[in-house]
Amino acid sequence: MLKLDKVDVYYGAIQALRGVSIKVDEGKVVSLIGANGAGKTTTLKTVIGLLKPKKGKVIYKGENIAHLSSHKRVKMGISIVPEGRRIFSRLTVLENLMIGAYTREDKGIKDDLNFVMDLFPILRERENQLAGTLSGGEQQMLAIARALMGRPELLLMDEPSLGLAPNIVIEVYKTIKEINKRGVTILLVEQNVNMAQRVSSYMYVLENGIVNISGTPQNVVSLDEIKKAYLGG
């Protein structure tokens, strides 16, 4: 479904990604792991169109979309749950959800609204509450639900466990599994390697903008350098 082919990305004169190549097959969950500053968020921004590669291709469903705007990519079926949630704090829960469907003109919006509220019942209870008054975990649920309102085929998730209590992290990852079971392909950025390996079929490790390790979760997490860096081994 998604393929990055030898992608170079710069912030001004500073190179952030160096020949990054990754592949995300349809229906799978693929994870990017790495330290802060490794290039994980940059990779997602490149896929969604917030950054344009200087070299390389971003291929989605067989088409190079590297030149397309973010707006067009959302219409093509790509949505993102950004790092730090980025909800609209002065709007209600319901208004945030409807913003997620802003590119749509079909008649299924109401059905999808019911779906995300069934997925996260707390959002139904608080649909008229200002989003900024929600807890961190509830805001993360809202950010995921808002992205789902775009009815994505490919969902990009940037650090969904960041800053959440362990019990909330477990709930969020149960939801990720449920979303994937419903046919949504997921590209997941995480520092929580333990959680990422439980849901992923394949993992890439980024270091200084380069993919230096890739493989199945079992193979990747068994490597000594991964154990030392992320698992306290």
Keyword list:
alpha/beta; 233 residues; globular; six-stranded mixed beta sheet; 26% strand; Rossmann fold
Main sheet: which strands, in order across? Answer: 6-7-8-3-9-10
Uncertain segments are: none
> Any idea what the radius of gyration is?
17 Å
CATH homologous superfamily heading of the domain at 1-68 and 189-233: P-loop containing nucleotide triphosphate hydrolases
- Shape field: globular
Number of helical stretches of at least 4 residues: 10
Examine the coordinates and then state which fold CATH places here, giving the name of the CATH topology of the domain at 1-68 and 189-233.
Rossmann fold
| The CATH top-level class label of the domain at 1-68 and 189-233 | Alpha Beta
Total number of strands: 10
Tell me, rounded to a whole number, the average pLDDT. Answer: 92
Task: Write structural notes for this entry.
The protein is an alpha/beta fold and 233 residues long. The chain has a domain at 1-68 and 189-233: P-loop containing nucleotide triphosphate hydrolases (Rossmann fold). The protein is 37% helix and 26% strand. The protein is built from ten helices and ten strands. It has helices at 40-48, 70-75, 93-100, 109-119, 121-125, 136-148, 166-181, 193-199, 217-221, 224-230, and strands at residues 2-11, 14-24, 29-33, 55-60, 63-64, 78-81, 154-158, 185-190, 202-207, 210-215. The strands form two sheets. Strands 6-7-8-3-9-10 form a six-stranded mixed beta sheet, with helices on both faces. Strand 7 (154-158), helix 7 and strand 8 (185-190) form a beta-alpha-beta unit. The mean pLDDT is 92.
